[in-house]
Design brief:
By secondary structure, the chain is of the alpha/beta class. The chain has ten helices and 14 strands. It has two domains: 18-257, Type I PLP-dependent aspartate aminotransferase-like (Major domain) (Aspartate Aminotransferase, domain 2, 3-Layer(aba) Sandwich); 260-360, Aspartate Aminotransferase, domain 1, CATH 3.90.1150. The protein has helices at 17-26, 45-61, 76-88, 102-114, 211-216, 227-232, 242-258, 260-280, 307-319, 344-360, and strands at 6-7, 68-73, 94-99, 116-122, 143-149, 151-152, 157-158, 170-173, 190-194, 205-210, 287-288, 299-303, 322-323, 334-337. Strand 3 (94-99), helix 4 and strand 4 form a beta-alpha-beta unit. Bound molecules: 4'-deoxy-4'-aminopyridoxal-5'-phosphate. 4'-deoxy-4'-aminopyridoxal-5'-phosphate binds at residues 11, 76-78, 103, 149, 153, 173, 175-176, 194.
């Protein structure tokens, strides 16, 4: 195998090479401390500097003001499925969920264990190939919040607009497209994302919460489940995942250096276009799962004419250093996850591979 191959895994996913190199260079002796970040006290001035810069860099790159606060938590995006209702779903209210895929459904199911929920819109009936339109979304009369998943990792669909929710707090699982494009992030009262796709390694979950929503959070929860606890303690209520937070900081510096969200959006559009273009020009050999208007720029999902060909495609791709392309078992086929850190060369190589494969099979 060559030194680095193209890794299309959906998460944990490829990281920017520059970030890995910087982490390697600082691994044994972080800035003359004589120790690694992995060995450092989370209450040391050096770590405080790391976590504070990660927080402020996140706000800067996301183009958010201090109206939002950034938290670094554990438990994955999955813990947020229950932290959100625990903190904001009161007995008199109903939580609205838009169900656009498996993770959105899980969020709904966990909410339903805690309080009253309503499906504000769903595209379950068309096997999650599309995103609902604004007019398809029906909020309940006493809504605690509206929850959506901005990018559906398994199905390869992505919201291209931010839905209007009026005065109802808007909450989003952005695990698989956070900071991948320009977006009105300030319209969201709470955003969460497991880091392992677009932000860093597994082990840390980023939560961005508005001050106004934070004020409404429950004060009677076990402290580890309470956003208030984590906000009041600057994400240091308990020992945080120090090393993953450090890598997130390096990824944010890398994003900023690349030109921020506008630049990363342009790059991501180009990358996705390379693959969708091959699909669209393949005379039906490759068929995309998502409807064109809702195609994800992060997870490109498609099928070949037969399952056997898909198996051959995966084996051949892997032997050529293109790995992690197997679709999720609920959709099958192929999924190319092309998050921020996937270089354009990865998509060019895969696009050429797809053309050659079709030619030969
Ligand atoms: N939401 C989305 C959109 C995801 O893609 C994933 C993981 N693939 C999750 C939630 C679950 O995240 P975690 O494994 O960090 O709990």
């Amino acid at each position: 195998m060559p030194y680095r191959i193209f890794n299309f895994n959906p998460g944990p996913a490829t990281l920017p090479l520059e970030v890995l190199e910087e982490a390697r260079d600082e691994m044994l002796n972080y800035r003359d401390t004589g120790i690694s970040v992995m060995e450092m006290s989370h209450r040391s001035p050096e770590f405080e500097e790391i976590i504070n810069s990660a927080q402020s860099l996140f706000l800067e790159v996301a183009e958010l003001s201090s109206e939002h606060q950034v938290l670094f938590l554990q438990g994955g995006a999955s813990l947020q499925f229950s932290m959100v209702p625990f903190n904001f779903l009161t007995p008199d209210a109903t939580a609205d969920y838009i169900v656009t895929g498996s993770f959105a459904k899980k969020a709904l199911q966990e909410g339903a264990k805690i309080g009253k929920t309503n499906i504000a819109a769903s595209n379950d009936s068309n096997n999650y190939t599309a995103i609902p339109r604004q007019e398809d979304i029906a909020l309940s009369s006493n809504s605690a919040y509206l929850h959506l998943t901005t990018n559906n990792t398994i199905y390869g669909t992505q919201w291209k607009y931010v839905p209007e929710s009026g005065s109802v707090p808007l909450i989003a699982d952005m695990s698989s497209d956070i900071l991948s494009r320009k977006m009105e992030m300030k319209k969201f009262d709470l955003i969460y994302a497991g880091a392992q796709k677009n932000l860093g390694p597994a082990g840390v979950t980023v939560v961005v919460i508005s001050t106004s929503l934070l004020e409404q959070a429950s004060s009677s929860l076990p402290p580890i489940l309470s956003y208030k606890t984590h906000a009041e303690n600057g994400s240091l209520y308990n020992t945080p995942p120090c090393f993953p937070i450090y890598i997130v900081k390096l990824v944010l510096e890398w994003l900023k250096k690349k030109g921020g969200l506008a630049a990363v959006q342009e790059a991501n559009e180009k990358k996705a276009h390379l693959l969708y273009n091959v699909i669209d020009k393949s005379d039906g050999y490759y068929t995309g799962h998502a409807v064109k208007k809702d195609r994800s720029e992060m997870n490109v999902t498609f099928h070949l004419p037969e399952e056997q060909l898909e198996k051959e495609f995966l084996d051949k791709a892997s032997s050529e250093g293109l790995i992690g392309l197997k679709g999720h078992r609920s959709v099958g086929g192929i999924r190319a996850s092309i998050y921020n850190a996937m270089p354009i060369e990865g998509c060019e190589t895969l696009a050429q591979f797809m053309k050659d494969f079709k030619q030969k099979h």
